[in-house]
Amino acid sequence: MRPSLLRHTRTFILPLLAIGLVLTGCDSTGSNGGNGDNGTTTFEYPSSNYGAETVTNLLAFDLGVRVGNASETSESTLLNLYTGNSNDEPIRAAQNLTTEGQSVYGDIASNVNLSSLVSKDDLVRGNQLDPQDTPNDGAAVNTDELLREYFRKAGVEDSSRTSNGIVLSQFAEKMLLGTPIYGQGAALLRDFASGSVSSNQAEQWDAAFGYFGFPRTLEPFLDYSGGTEGLAGGNVARDVDSNGSVDLTSEYVHTWASYAIERSAAAANNDSPNDFARRAFEALRQGREDIENGDDPADHAQTALEAWEATVAVNVIHYINSMESNLEGVSGELGQGDVGEDAWGEAKAFAWGLQFYSDKLNDSQLNDILEDIGNDPPYGEKTASGYASDLADATQIIQDAYGFNSSNVEAW
Fold first, then answer.
1. What is the pLDDT of residue 226?
2. Which of 36, 29, 42, 37 is nearest to 282 (CA)?
3. For residues 353 and 312, is the Cβ–Cβ distance under 8 A?
4. Which among 122, 116, 100 has a CA at the least distance from the CA of 51?
5. Within a domain: residue 152?
6. Helix (H, G, I), strand (E, B), or coil: what is residue 28?
């Protein structure tokens, strides 16, 4: 078991789908985790408060978008968002949404410092990165160091990618999804699963829920019938309580939750259901109910944790599949653009995310996956067929470790 190192594609499209959103009213469900009139359930308790975790999700998305628009972004702005000086900055995900008084980050939670939450442990095989891709040539590098270097490249050099084909925006968002978001949330759930949380249980459970990023009522957001990546109407934001505005802490699908929904929809449409989203949401809701009732939430914590880890692993497969599709029309030595640089970056970043918690992969397996993906898109280093074989090996390691259905692996 690879423990968490911390204590406590979704591409940029999904949050942007909220732009121009027509707020859709739905029957509100009952409080305290009960059933509403429409049979859905809700995560709603008197102490539910996870504003800082919501802001962490929103900032990760914001940083990815801003790094992708490097020529319009300064290094100081990126660092302000990263280091906790974002209270007065407009919430990018709230653009063109009517929210419940949530226009700047400080309206939700103040002084959220991502840099203090990010793991400072060395990234697996980080010492193998080429000089143009790391601030520590030939030496170990951690997530904080790498992000600060990529913020510098974007903000000072107006770069959107390195000369090796590393897309900076993908790493700016997706590495933050690994640490702090997945790492912190998984650590909390792991501690609940092992029975080591004795105080502030409600607060800590709510934080894990906030990191995962589900809305408090899930069913109105779901549609696995195809064409909308699992989201009803393609919307990440919905006015569930019909009060005319969206609450970004309770009526919005944040990044990990959206990935769980998207991968669940793909499996459902492949006639091999594997509903990560409902499994995780219900476990989180029921575990919170356990705490309210004075019961042990360990089993529900384990269920939610397993669903989250599986979602991370499926994301690696998804973006490997995307690269393999790009390689189908390529022969001979790889040249620039042959791999699909956005997909490469996402596969790499999500594989790094498994460093911060995995119960299924050992150190050797994770090292092999990262080696197969490579230190950068292997232009001029490998043939298309050779790299496709490496990617297939990485997928096989993940499929075997998690017991994924082979037809789903192909569909994802």
1. 79
2. 42
3. yes
4. 100
5. yes
6. coil
* Structure-derived torsion over alpha carbons of residues 107, 110, 111, 115, reported in degrees to the nearest 10: -70
pTM: 0.91
Rounded Cα distance between 387 and 391, Å, is 6
386: containing domain: 13-411
The string of pLDDT tens digits covering residues 245-278 is 999 999 999 999 999 999 999 999 999 999 999 9
In a domain, 282, yes or no: yes
Q: How many domains does the chain have?
A: 1
Annotate 249-315 with three-state secondary structure: CCCECCHHHHHHHHHHHHHHHCCCCCCHHHHHHHHHHHHHHHHHCCCCCHHHHHHHHHHHHHHHHHH
* 283-287 contact pairs (CB < 8 A, 24+): 283/307, 284/43, 284/205, 284/208, 284/209, 284/212, 284/214, 285/33, 285/41, 285/42, 285/43, 286/33, 287/192, 287/205
Residue 6 maps to a domain: no
Q: Is-contact 409 387, C-beta < 8 A?
A: no
**What are the DSSP calls for 56-69, one per residue?**
HHHHHHHHHHHHHT
How much helix, strand and coil, in percent to the nearest 5, is found in the chain?
Answer: 55, 5, 40
- Residue burial 328-363, b: 16+ Cβ < 10 Å; e: rest: eebeeebeeebbbbbbbbbbbbbbbbbbbbbebbee
Give the residue-averaged pLDDT of 288-316.
98
E strand or H helix at 203: helix 201-212
Residue 179 DSSP one-character state:
I
Q: Is residue 5 part of a domain?
A: no
Which letter does DSSP use for residue 93 in this model?
Answer: G
Q: Do residues 344 and 323 lie in contact, with contact meaning Cβ atoms separated by under 8 Å?
A: yes
